[in-house]
């Protein structure tokens, strides 16, 4: 097999080039090739400097994640990088694309780093439940200081080359089209000078002078890192870089890295990494299916949903024509969008110039005729089949042939909606989650007649607008809401049987959800769908509305809220629930948190199994992608189906049976076969 590493001589400079598509991951052959190349450079007196660069779209994007969990084959990355750094001849990293994880660690082991302006550098290992494992946590703080290193190692978000230059991670920025030549010239200019080694840097002393730095940083990140193991380990490792010798710091990093690598959180997050990428692929649709160009989008409805959907396209530079029935609703929707953008600008997330640019792409209209030349129209109108059918019939008559007509419905039958048109092949579900400009998930609903090119286009478009997409078949509630309804059913039943509603919420919070079902109800508004007749009370929600407990916006719902929106359980609500239970003859008993957890989560797994059995999801991991991105299922458990595998399907079945809840054949079979969901 030919090595992915080749070398080219430029007089006294050896250029080492990696060609390992798609992302130049640092697999065994790459590591071996790099090590050999360094040895070649060191043993050849006519070579006085080395440049390391990559072919293709990017500099090394990290360790090869597919090798994780398999028996290691040498040379390992740390020893390869140590050999590189030990060289007395200057070694220069020439960076384009993304230098991530192990790739950033390669750059750190080089004596100098030069980059093109579009390059990004980062240590995203925390996103895989890990910390850098090739001395990144030890070299980086020594090079740039603990304060600058912490956000990189703990947050895991890459930074642009310019920012990297500001903190001292990059030595020079060069033109996009002359990286190699500039790197060679740079390397030559350093010949004969003592090489600077990151492992010998002193910048980490900022953390020694100000040891509280680490606690302050931890406190500032408390919300983002709640429940995750890796960020705390990352802080510990960076702290160790100030407290220990380099050799001991590296040992500490290795210990922390190995503990995380063998834990379930990292397994779950690695599962998710591949799950997200798999979810964008549709098994029976060839990858080279020609796409429908989407140059202009139409959105029907300028309410919260329609506005949020619109912003996704505007932010991606795609013009949108937005339609409403009345001028005041249109004006209101437009001004909310502008305000949202301006708030982002105030928080420094975008410039005012970008706000104007995005809003400049928006055309508000009251006329369907203005949608005629759109390539895609998404309706976000009232959830009612007759209304949707009228909208689709109208769209079919005005929008050009070959354009995609999409519905944002969260549970209606896309196939039935498609019958209102003469182009059912061009009808598809695009189910966004509120707030649609923020939430990552896009549930793409495949009708029985939806064409391949329509689906392929929507999947590609989801990436353009920064969404994570997963495909669902047509069934009530699709993947996400179908499973949510099972959880809600149990939440309601539990409080009627005597469980405290705040215990139900707390169980989910403790599991890692951002909030529980009753908090969620308060946030969304208890009065959604409320008939406004306090004399007709048939549900607990109606009883709460009847006494003005509409949710957070009213200062009270299931909970009482203070001005800072802190919640306290309410005696009034407890009495309302108890009253209901008595009326329905439900015996009250104390219910343990274990039972609450099992009854909330196991029926979701069972529903997920049914969704798979019916072919409504392509793969179990798509269900995980839906729940992590659309409903706040904690990433570090890998999503409901991966989590069920770690719990054991036999335990899930036993739990469901213990609580008298149904078990699908599919789940039974998994349990009997002793297998998880794959
Ligand atoms: N190892 C193995 N495969 C990888 C990989 C990696 N590090 N990074 C990406 N891939 C694969 C993807 O699975 C995908 O495969 P597919 O086509 O079969 O689905 C393919 O490469 C292309 O990836 P993307 O679809 O993500 O391509 P993009 O162009 O959208 O993004 C990227 C490119 C920004 C590099 C993105 O792939 C990415 O973020 N990769 C992961 C980076 C990372 O986490 N690095 C750290 C690894 S851990 C580490 O280095 C430990 C060290 O400290 C010891």
Q: Would you count the extended β strands for me?
A: 19
| Large-scale geometry | globular
| Proportion of beta-strand residues | 5-15%
> What is the name of the CATH superfamily of the largest domain?
2-enoyl-CoA Hydratase, Chain A, domain 1
Label the CATH architecture of the largest domain. Answer: Alpha-Beta Complex
Structural class: alpha/beta
Please mark out the parts with pLDDT under 50 across 5 or more consecutive residues, or reply none.
Answer: none
Count structural domains.
4
Mean pLDDT: 96
CATH class of the largest domain: Alpha Beta
User: Number of helical segments?
Assistant: 29
Description:
By secondary structure, the protein is α/β, with parallel strands linked by helices. 47% of the residues lie in helices and 12% in strands. The protein has 29 helices and 19 strands. The strands form four sheets. The chain has an eight-stranded mixed β-sheet, sandwiched between helices. Strands 1-2-3-4-6-9 form a six-stranded mixed β-sheet, with helices on both faces. A hairpin with a 5-residue loop joins β18 and β19. The relative contact order is 0.06. The mean pLDDT is 96. 3-hydroxybutanoyl-coenzyme A binds next to β5 and α3.
